[in-house]
Design brief:
This protein is mainly alpha-helical and 176 residues long. Helices cover 76% and strands 0% of the residues. It folds into 2 domains: 19-46 and 122-176; 47-119.
Length: 176
């Protein structure tokens, strides 16, 4: 009888040890998945290069300059007997008239932000995001592999609600 109890206790201890290893493995992979997701968000929101931002500002300034033609005859409207309130806002008139200085101010702000935080061009952003997506999928496949092994040993493991369907639905032969 003592021999059976010892065997049962050894079996339970082995199960607890195996489950602890499963938890640690999954926890480690999930921490890496979270880290990769954070990096993806960071790169996705990284500033565009200075030349791209300044080209966008130049396009805005040019748009304002084109609209100046609409703003300048405004004085004539005040002289007509059938005066009506202008259909655009007066603060926009000031913006139309000061487009160049507004553009230069915006460029200075953009330059300061790019110098302090850096920037990523589209090609580099695409390459880095593709690399991170591959790393993320590898981690997701590893996580799924551990989950399936744990389930095969009789342990229940809850999958993350945001687990990648490509990993969850992957064939066992694809898993590491």
């Amino acid at each position: 009888m003592t021999n059976i109890r010892e065997t049962i206790e050894k079996s339970r201890a082995a199960s607890r040890g195996a489950m602890q290893e499963v938890r640690e493995g999954i926890s480690s992979i999930r921490a890496r998945i979270s880290s990769i997701n954070d990096e993806i968000k960071k790169i996705s929101r990284a500033h565009v290069p200075l030349n791209v931002a300044t080209a966008r500002i130049d396009a805005l300034v040019n748009e304002f300059k084109e609209k100046q033609a609409e703003a300048l005859p405004l004085a004539e409207r005040f002289l007509t007997p059938d005066y009506t309130m202008p259909s655009f806002r007066f603060d926009m008139i000031a913006l139309f008239l000061a487009a160049d200085s507004v553009g230069e101010h915006l460029k200075a702000q953009v330059r300061e932000k790019v110098e302090s935080a850096g920037s990523i061009d589209d090609a580099e952003r695409h390459m880095r995001l593709a690399d991170l997506d591959r790393q993320l999928l590898d981690c997701e496949l590893s996580e799924e592999s551990i989950i399936r092994q744990a389930e095969g040993m009789g342990f229940d493991v809850i999958r993350r609600p945001d687990a990648d369907p490509r990993a969850v639905l992957a064939h066992d032969k694809v898993l590491p």
